[in-house]
Write a structure and sequence with these properties.
Aspartate Aminotransferase, domain 2; alpha/beta; four-stranded mixed sheet; single chain; 17 strands; PyrdxlP-dep_Trfase_small; binds 4'-deoxy-4'-aminopyridoxal-5'-phosphate; Aspartate Aminotransferase, domain 1; seven-stranded mixed sheet; globular; 463 residues
Length: 463
């Protein structure tokens, strides 16, 4: 693919963007001194900006989305064909790609049964919360309305999902929040608190959830929402023993398990879904980003048949069903893209590639850790990896945010886009994060790791 910027005047586009587009998660003051980046083309893992600069994108569209890579004409063709035939009808009726994708998805999710379509990760999580709340009213006399979430986890940008989020950067200045969302501690072994049982940390961390359930009253707690591997909160995989214990606790107190697979879903960690590494059976699973790799907006709230059944059993039929709609959940472009996206993951054996290249990526980051004292901890699973940067390995004091930004900026200047995670309320958790497309090659990993190596050398020598 060539970088064809001839169809428009790139200076005009950059100026229009600077003058009229409000970028996400962006302090626009920066554009008083430098131009905003406008992305023009993409192919594989590479993107080109309006000025013709080429980048290797190691975070799949900045936010871990483009799982099958850029420039997939087969997805674009399927979406075009579908749109010409039938673009939209509300999900009060079915449509062909929605039915076909639901069938294909459920085949990969033993124990799960029903797919509810909407447009974004936040929306999928809102649907899950509404399902939990309605079950509380239908089955438990309006009592089991509380939803637990973990410190450091992120579940979305709406006020409801932010209420279920444990990240300072996301929540600060947006309160007050929705009642009955209750925070529980996280399970980051590297940052285990002094009072923690370090020998059995996984079980100890899960037991902290039980303490909160007991303090709140088990009769008030309807569900817990968890990322299988915490993404924006610092790329955190729970230690051994954690998940079976969480499942046991939830069973004991009749608490539904809602797994947020918005980042980990569709192959990112080497299984179709992150939770499938840990042998847990969720009641609700939400997913978005990788479902159609950003070729169309689509998200899914997937439930067990038991959860679905609760909406059929009601004496008053008008109260019984799930009284929710998402207008654009009826867009056919989403499931049409998702079907081909999933087929690509299968046909190209991308789960195998994630496992092979993911192991290589983590080994290379560990190699960097041996070389650079600033790396305190390397974490990750599959093609989802991160490393935490510290001033001192013994005290684990995190580096200043400016250091993290400098490392990311250095990589960007050298044509490699990497990501960073967010600060939680309790800890200044600054982790560089990598989540490249699932098609990445060993050679491309080497380019990314070399760029990080050089950035760390440059940044640490200037400290
Ligand atoms: N859950 C998780 C784990 C996420 O990382 C995100 C987005 N980063 C969301 C939910 C929200 O998704 P969206 O931005 O599509 O609303």
């Amino acid at each position: 693919m060539t970088n064809n910027v001839n169809e428009f005047d790139s200076i005009d586009v950059v100026n229009s963007d600077r003058n009229h587009v409000w970028h996400h998660l962006t302090q626009h003051k920066a554009f008083e001194k430098s131009d905003p980046m406008v992305i023009v083309n993409g192919k594989g893992l590479r993107v080109w900006d309006a000025k013709g600069n080429e980048y290797l994108d190691a975070v799949s569209g900045a936010v871990w989305t483009v799982n099958v890579g850029y420039g997939r004409t087969e997805i674009a063709d399927a979406v075009r064909d579908q749109l010409v035939k039938m673009n939209y009808f509300a999900q009060t009726a079915g449509n062909v790609p929605a039915a076909q994708f639901a069938q294909k998805l459920i085949e990969k999710m033993p124990g799960m049964s029903r797919v509810y379509y909407s447009n974004s990760g936040s929306e999928a999580n809102e649907k899950a919360f509404k399902i939990v709340r309605q079950i509380a009213h239908k089955k438990y006399g309006g009592k089991k309305t509380k939803i637990l979430y973990r410190d450091r986890d992120y579940h979305g940008t709406t006020i409801g999902t932010l209420s279920a989020t444990g990240q300072f950067e996301r929540k600060n200045q947006y309160g007050p929040f929705v009642p009955d969302f209750v925070e529980v501690p996280h399970c980051c072994e590297y940052r285990a608190q002094d009072e923690a049982d370090k020998e059995n940390y996984g079980i100890w961390a899960a037991d902290q959830i039980e303490k909160v359930i007991l303090a709140e009253g088990p009769e008030t707690v309807g569900a817990i929402c968890l990322e299988p591997i915490t993404a924006g909160g610092g790329v955190i995989e729970a230690p051994a023993g954690y998940w079976p214990r969480v499942q046991e606790i939830c069973k004991k107190y009749d608490v539904l398990i809602h797994i947020d697979e918005v980042v980990c879903g569709l192959g990112r960690t080497g299984q179709w879904f992150g939770y499938q590494h840990y042998n847990i059976q969720p009641d609700i699973v939400t997913m978005a980003k990788g479902v159609a790799s950003g070729y169309a907006a689509i998200s899914c709230t997937v439930t067990t048949e038991a959860v679905f059944d609760a909406f059929k059993e009601d004496e008053d039929p008008r109260m019984g069903y799930f009284r929710d709609i998402s207008t654009f959940g009826g867009c056919t472009a989403g499931p049409a893209a998702a079907l081909v996206n999933m087929q690509i993951i299968e046909d190209e054996n991308l789960l195998d590639n994630v496992n092979t290249q993911g192991a290589y990526l983590i080994s290379q980051l560990n190699r960097l850790k041996e070389k650079h004292d600033i790396i305190g901890d390397v974490r990750g699973k599959g093609l989802f990896a991160g490393f935490e940067m510290v001033k001192d390995r013994t005290t684990k004091e995190p580096v200043d945010e400016s250091v993290v930004m400098a490392v990311a900026g250095h990589c960007m200047a050298n044509g490699v886009i990497i990501g960073r995670t967010n600060r939680s309320f309790k800890e200044f958790n600054n982790t560089i994060c990598l989540a490249p497309a699932l098609i990445i090659t060993k050679e491309e990993i080497d380019i990314v790791v070399n760029a990080i190596d050089e950035a760390l050398l440059a940044v640490t020598s200037s400290l």
